[in-house]
Design goal:
Order of helices and strands of chain A: EEEHEHEHHEEEHHEEEEEEEEEEEHEHH
Strand content of chain B: 5-15%
Shape of chain B: flat
Distance between the termini of chain B: 32 Å
Structural class of chain B: alpha/beta
Distance between the termini of chain A: 78 Å
Oligomer: heterodimer
CATH superfamily of the largest domain in chain A: Metallo-dependent phosphatases
Helix content of chain B: 55-70%
Number of domains of chain A: 2
Mean pLDDT of chain A: 86
Mean pLDDT of chain B: 81
Low-confidence stretches of chain B: 110-114, 1014-1019
CATH class of the largest domain in chain A: Alpha Beta
Largest interface: A-B, 69 and 78 residues
Low-confidence stretches of chain A: none
Strand content of chain A: 15-25%
Number of strands of chain A: 20
CATH topology of the largest domain in chain A: Purple Acid Phosphatase, chain A, domain 2
Chain lengths: 390, 1019
């Protein structure tokens, strides 16, 4: 069975006030060409189809066109789940009707544990799509659809429960694939992922997913693997933040043989334009880049680090004259002479010693140091005050 | 301050009681209060504020009186209570208010003007952290509660509105406030009053020390004036010199007087000595007279002493006999006691010891009688033993009989068993014989069975073949039919093609015909005449090449079909032949079984059933035979076992019987040895007891005899000794012996008298020696000596007095010198102490090149620290673009530093006032500042802990991306340190996985639901 595994499309994302819809269109075209060339048995999209709960119209249109090409023209079944950026109900729209055509799309968990059976030359492969669910939602599902008594608090418990239910309906000896959207512990994060739980990470252990022959995951934007390649994040289609500058973006193609052994390959997709971190100085009203000019495309999204000693007036405007899509500017700021009170970094926060304060005050005002006698006087006074006040 | 549980009743839009348990919110660090406009989100903050301080977050527009819920029924009391944590302890505060019933006024007042009278009630107490029960008595006075809460939290309502709550529309107040206001806030938050106090103390201290120094100098001046009348000294050194001079003079005079003293002293001493001697002599003579009198008295006591000595002598004589006397008395007592055991005291008194003793001793029986008693006793003991033996034997015999009977029963049982087994065996043997007979017919049956099997096989084969043949026939028929059809179709198609071709040719011809002209050759045949040109076709019959081609194609297809069908048919035919051949072969080979093949299923079954049945029954019988043989073997084994057991049992029975018989005989023998007089054991015991009693009595009397002998002997010995000592009788001796005390007394008296005598004699001797032949002095002589001594003494005394005066004066001047020197030292010290204080206080108060007060310096430093922390966050929130700075502009009052804030824009490279930021940017900067302040406050122990912050709206001014960054930054940086509550109606925030307090408007007032972590709209 040949599987094309992709995830984290984030259609409609706005990157520092620039819309990425054109880039996404282009990279999805590449994806479709790749699918047409490879002719896999199934395409899996492991969540975060859209970037927000209320995506812009263009994004919806793009998703519609892409899925249509995959299902109708290329006649390849697609299994997709909602991620934490998507709104479950929107993704679920017309899902039962769409299943008839080979588009298996799950925004939320249906009444029965979803199980999709596809056949290849060796036999049947069972797919289990698990859309993103918070512990509360899992608890609600358990209370309304089963008679089990559980108390689900963490994401690990959510997954343990789902896998328990899958084991009940999965026929022995058959190959299985899980599609889900968790944060696996030990995985490396980027800036552009929204926390699954605000202020926490809600991790899931990789080895708790070992039951399946292959686990197709989405959520983390860097392509990475666990358990020797059995559990994979496909990574996002494009670089969605400056922390992803070093990533190679693309999709994963998996060949599964009759025993469930895998051969995975990451196939890179070339984006419309690059996202890069650059350095340079502004001289004579122009921005001069440090490094290879040729490596930076004119339309690339850039984060520019200015190396000038002094602040430059209208720095951003000057940079943008050369590179239209320079999105952020960084300048290593040191407190100027006149601002004697400012520290570039906060001190290790501790209670300030009054005598030290006075000493520095004295030194600045008189350019003299406190004599020992004077220090003792201060010390005694401070002690007196401490006993006087409650 | 961190809120734990807030309860609101009849306050704002909440009519009933609602409770917010902050501890139950998952994580309870970052949470959101959402709800429609006017649902009551800000009212929650108002309630929090009101509980602590009695005022809302915005006193101008929403004073607490106006918060009385309009939904609540009349007469309800508005109540807010809060459980909160401060300084690691837990407290409870509750405030309630209600409208006081006022008398109906005549004039109509509008709702807004009406100064509705409100009654309030409040209560406050600390809670125990584990039980959450009150741990102190509650306070109820407003002022008490106010000061307590302010002290615990660290600041009042005004700063609360800057630091803990960022109120709606007013979050920028701290950021944009002026220098004075910032100073106020910083002073309160960091408790900087201490620095002010420090400076005040410095100033005070300096003043004090200045006064001290001056006072000392004045003192020195007065000193010179008072003691030496020196008023206009140019300096203090001169005064010192003056004193020195005075001193020297005094010392000189003193010296002179000292020299005169020794001579006068000597004279005086001589006179004094003579007088003293006279006194002494008078005294000695008096003593002598006294001593002689004492001696007289002493000699009068001699007689008494002699008496004592005589008594002591007698005692000494009697002493050696004391021991024997005592032991005799002891023995006598013992003997009397013994007697009293045998007779009554009265008798003893009447008859006397001797008589009674003789009476008793006469009762002792002779020796033979005693011996007889002894033998009788022995015999009885023997009989007793036999009785016991008999009892034991009887017991054993009973037991043995039981054993014997048991063995008997066992043997009988075994015998029965053996008989049963023999019977069973016989039966089995019969059965085996039967079965063997049956099995003799087996070999025959097997033959028949084999044959039947073969016949079955062949029958099946034949049937299959027939079936195949039939099938093949059918198939061939079908194919033939199809072929016929195909042929017909082909022909039809062919016809069609021909027709069409014709038409086509006709039309072609017609087209050509159009071109024909008379005289021109025909393109086809060449003839110049065209008598009969083709006519154009009818519309329907016009055929084009395409149609023709199609028809041709159709015909080709039909032809193909027909040909292939023919082929199929031939193939099938061939197969049919093969099958028929096979069939024939089969028939030839097994000619004799053909009848069987022709049979129907039922007939065949009938044919085979008897054989099958026979085989089956034989098999059964074989199986049974084996079983039976097995059983038989087992039984045999069993029988053997039982026989063996039976033999053993019999032997045992024998043995037990013998033993039992033996015992019975032994018993009988024993019985004969017991005499008849003792039918029972008890009788023996009684006789024994009687004899024993008699024997005891005899022993007693014998004992007594012994003792009497001893006693008599002792008495006789003692009598001899007494006579030898020279005493009359025992009684006298008794009397002569003195007790210890009396002896000691007398001895002592004698000693003392002797001693006294010696002492007196010695003393008299001494006095005489001292007098040494001198005579007593006369009174007149004494008087003269006395007078002379006295005169000399007076003279000496005068001299001494004057000497002392001079000495005093010298001393005083010395002291003065010392004191003045000391005072001078102190004055210098005071001056040196004062100087550093002056420096410190002046500099701290702003008298320095920068004209900056210490307190201002501290505040600016603190604010700088706050900004450093704030900038950390602002850096993240604005993606490195903005930083906050202290404005450089100076204030009018030159001694303070301006605490206004500017912002540096990295994109522009410019610094400008914070007031120039956009709405969203202002919000970010205000947020960063508030959090930075909280950070620094937390670290300064003098400062308060800002553990909770509430932000009322403001997120709506941010675009999507910035909003995400803001929430992410807040959650990552803050969650460890403090609780952050956000009031927002922004959709994106509602969609996040964050605990929510949802406020919903209802017909009867607002309601609160707490939701944890769900994005789904269903939950």
């Amino acid at each position: 069975m040949k599987i094309l595994h992709t995830a984290d499309w984030h259609l409609g994302k706005i990157f520092k006030n620039f819309s990425l819809i054109e880039d996404q269109k282009q990279v999805l075209e590449q994806l479709i060409n790749l699918v047409s060339y490879l002719n896999p048995d199934v395409v899996i999209i492991a969540g975060d189809l859209y970037d927000k709960a209320t995506p812009p119209a263009q994004a919806i249109q793009l998703l519609n066109d892409t899925l249509a090409k995959l299902i109708i023209e290329l006649k390849i079944p697609v299994i997709a789940i909602a991620g934490n950026h998507d709104q479950a109900e929107k993704i679920d729209y017309c899902s039962t009707i769409l299943q008839q055509q080979g588009l298996y799309i799950f925004g939320s968990l249906p009444e029965k544990i979803p199980q999709i059976v596809l056949r290849d030359a060796y036999g049947e492969v069972f797919f289990y799509p698990f859309p993103f669910l918070t512990p509360e939602e899992m608890q609600y599902w358990i209370d309304t659809h089963t008679a089990d008594k559980r108390n689900i608090q963490t994401f690990q418990e959510v997954f343990d429960y789902f896998i328990e239910q899958v084991k009940k309906i999965h026929p022995e000896g058959k190959r299985s694939v899980l599609i889900a959207h968790p944060f696996v512990s030990g995985g490396s994060e980027s800036e552009s992922e929204r926390d699954l739980v605000v202020g926490g990470s809600g991790v899931v252990e990789a080895r708790s997913l070992a039951f399946f022959d292959y686990v197709a995951l989405g959520h983390l934007h860097q392509p990475q693997q666990f358990l020797g390649g059995k559990v994979c994040y496909a990574g996002s289609l494009l670089k969605y933040s400056f922390s992803e500058v070093k990533h190679t973006k693309g999709v994963i193609v998996v060949e599964m043989d009759t025993q469930g052994n895998l051969q995975t390959e990451h196939i890179a997709l070339k984006p419309l334009r690059n996202v890069q971190l650059v350095e340079g100085v502004i001289e004579n009203d122009t921005f001069r880049l440090h490094g290879e000019e040729a490596a930076i495309g004119q339309n690339d999204l850039l984060r520019v680090k200015l190396l000038n000693d002094q602040p430059v007036a209208n720095a951003m405007a000057i940079v943008q004259r050369k590179y239209k899509y320079a999105a952020a500017l960084e300048w290593n700021w040191q407190p100027p002479e006149s601002y004697r009170w400012h520290k570039a970094q906060p001190q290790s926060v501790k209670k300030v010693d009054t005598i030290q304060l006075f000493e520095s005050f004295f030194a600045e005002m008189q350019t003299q140091t406190l004599t020992d006698q004077q220090k003792n006087i201060l010390q005694k006074l401070i002690q007196d005050l401490a006993t006087e006040l409650p | 301050m961190k809120p734990l549980k807030l309860t609101i009743e009849a306050f704002g839009p909440f009519s009933g009681a609602v409770e917010i348990d902050f501890e139950r919110l998952a994580q309870a660090h970052l949470f959101v209060i959402t709800g429609a406009t006017g649902a009551g989100k800000t009212s929650i903050l108002d309630a929090l504020c009101f509980a602590l301080y009695g005022e809302t977050t915005n006193n101008q527009n929403r004073s607490y009186e106006k918060m009385l819920s309009t939904h609540a029924p009349e007469g309800t009391v508005a109540k807010v209570s809060l459980v909160f944590e401060a300084q690691h302890r837990i407290f409870f505060v509750e405030r309630s208010f209600w409208p006081t019933k006022s008398r109906q006024s005549n004039t109509e007042e509008s709702l807004e003007d009406a100064k509705q009278k409100i009654s309030t009630k409040q209560t406050f107490y600390e809670l125990d952290p584990t039980t959450r029960q009150p741990s102190e008595s509650p306070l109820s006075k407003t002022k008490e509660i106010e000061s307590r809460i302010e002290q615990l939290i660290g600041f009042g309502i005004d700063n609360f509105r800057y630091l803990v709550v960022l109120p709606q529309g007013k979050f920028q107040e701290l950021l944009q406030s002026n220098s004075d206001k910032k100073e106020d806030i910083l002073m309160e938050v960091f408790d900087a009053k201490i620095y002010e106090k420090l400076v005040d103390k410095l100033i005070e201290g300096a003043k004090q020390r200045e006064a001290n120094s001056k006072a000392l100098r004045d003192e020195i001046k007065h000193f010179f004036a008072d003691h030496y009348q020196l008023t206009d000294l140019p300096n203090f050194e001169e005064g010192v010199t003056h004193i020195g001079k005075r001193r020297t003079a005094t010392l000189a005079e003193l010296d002179k007087l000292e020299k005169q003293k020794p001579a006068i002293e000597k004279k005086y001493l001589q006179a004094d000595a003579a007088y003293k001697e006279g006194i002494e002599l008078q005294d000695l003579f008096q003593q002598l007279v006294q001593l002689q009198q004492a001696k007289q008295v002493h000699l009068q006591q001699a007689e008494l002493i002699q008496n004592h000595q005589a008594v002591l002598e007698k005692h000494r004589q009697a002493l050696p006999l004391k021991g024997s006397l005592d032991s005799f008395n002891g023995l006598k007592k013992e003997y009397q006691q013994r007697l009293l055991q045998l007779v009554s005291p009265q008798e003893a008194k009447e008859k006397g010891i001797n008589q009674i003793t003789q009476q008793l001793l006469s009762k002792i029986p002779p020796r033979e009688a005693v011996e007889k008693l002894f033998f009788e006793k022995e015999k009885l003991l023997e009989i007793g033993k036999r009785w016991q033996q008999l009892a034991t034997q009887k017991q054993q015999a009973a037991q043995q009989e039981r054993l014997y009977r048991e063995a008997q029963r066992l043997a009988e049982g075994l015998q029965k068993k053996i008989e049963t087994i023999a019977a069973a065996q016989k039966e089995l043997q019969m059965l085996i014989d039967q079965q063997l007979a049956k099995l003799s017919t087996k070999p025959q049956a097997v033959e028949q069975w084999e044959l039947l099997k073969k016949q079955q096989e062949t029958r099946q084969q034949y049937q299959k073949l027939q079936h195949t043949l039939e099938q093949q026939q059918g198939l061939m028929k079908q194919t033939l039919q199809a072929l016929k059809q195909a042929r017909e179709e082909e022909m039809a198609a062919k016809q069609q093609v021909d027709t069409l071709k014709n038409h086509w040719m006709q039309s072609q011809a017609a087209v050509l015909a159009l071109q024909l002209e008379e005289g021109q050759p025909c393109p086809v045949c060449g003839s110049a005449q065209h008598p009969n040109p083709a006519l154009p076709q009818h519309e329907d019959l016009r055929v084009d090449e395409k149609t023709l081609a199609q028809a041709d194609k159709t015909w080709q297809q039909a032809l193909q079909k027909a040909t292939s069908l023919e082929e199929s048919y031939r193939q099938q035919e061939a197969k049919q032949k093969d099958y028929a051949e096979e069939n024939n072969q089969l028939r030839q080979r097994y000619a004799d079984w053909q009848a069987i093949w022709q049979m129907s299923e039922a007939e065949f079954e009938q044919y085979q059933s008897p054989i099958v049945q026979l085989k089956q029954s034989l098999d059964n019988v074989e199986a049974h035979l084996q079983e039976t043989q097995q059983k038989s073997k087992q039984l045999r084994e069993n029988e053997q076992q039982e026989r063996e057991a039976f033999q053993a049992a019999q032997l045992r029975e024998q043995a037990q019987k013998e033993a039992w018989n033996q015992l019975t005989t032994t018993i009988q023998t024993l019985q004969t040895t017991i005499p008849d007089t003792f039918q029972t054991e008890q009788q023996v015991q009684e006789a024994l007891d009687k004899i024993q009693a008699k024997m005891n009595q005899v022993a007693q009397l014998q004992d007594l005899g012994q003792l009497w002998k001893q006693f008599s002997k002792t008495k006789d010995e003692l009598d001899i000794k007494v006579a030898e000592a020279g005493f009359v009788d025992l009684k006298t001796i008794q009397e002569s012996l003195l007790d210890e005390t009396s002896y000691q007394q007398r001895t002592q008296s004698i000693e003392q008298w002797n001693k006294q005598g010696v002492v007196l004699n010695t003393q008299i001797q001494g006095i005489n020696k001292k007098i040494n032949g001198r005579t007593a002095p006369t009174p007149e002589g004494m008087a003269a000596t006395e007078k002379a001594a006295q005169e000399l003494k007076n003279e000496l005394e005068e001299l001494q007095l004057r000497s002392m005066e001079l000495q005093l004066e010298a001393d005083q001047t010395e002291k003065h010198l010392a004191k003045v020197t000391q005072l001078l030292q102190s004055a210098n010290d005071a001056l040196s102490q004062y100087q550093p204080w002056e420096t410190l206080s002046r500099v701290a108060d702003g008298h320095n090149p920068r004209s900056l007060k210490f307190v201002s310096f501290v505040l600016a430093t603190l604010l700088g620290e706050v900004l450093a922390f704030a900038n950390q966050r602002l850096d993240l929130l604005s993606d490195g673009r903005y930083r906050l700075l202290l404005s450089g502009a100076k204030e009018k009052n030159a001694r303070k530093i301006g605490l206004n804030l500017d912002v540096f824009d990295a994109y522009n490279g410019t610094t400008r006032s914070v007031k120039t930021l956009s709405g969203g940017e202002t919000f970010l900067a205000s947020l960063a500042l508030a959090l930075g302040l909280a950070d620094v406050a937390a670290a300064q122990l003098g400062g308060v802990k800002l553990e909770a912050i509430f932000i009322d709206e403001g997120f709506g001014s941010l675009d999507e991306e910035t909003l995400q960054v803001a929430i992410k930054t807040l959650s990552q940086l803050e969650i460890e340190h403090r609780m952050i509550g956000i009031i927002s109606h922004v959709n994106e925030i509602k969609q996040m996985s964050v605990p929510k307090i949802q406020v919903d408007k209802g017909p009867q007032g607002s309601l609160i639901t707490i939701k944890n972590l769900s994005k789904s709209t269903r939950l």
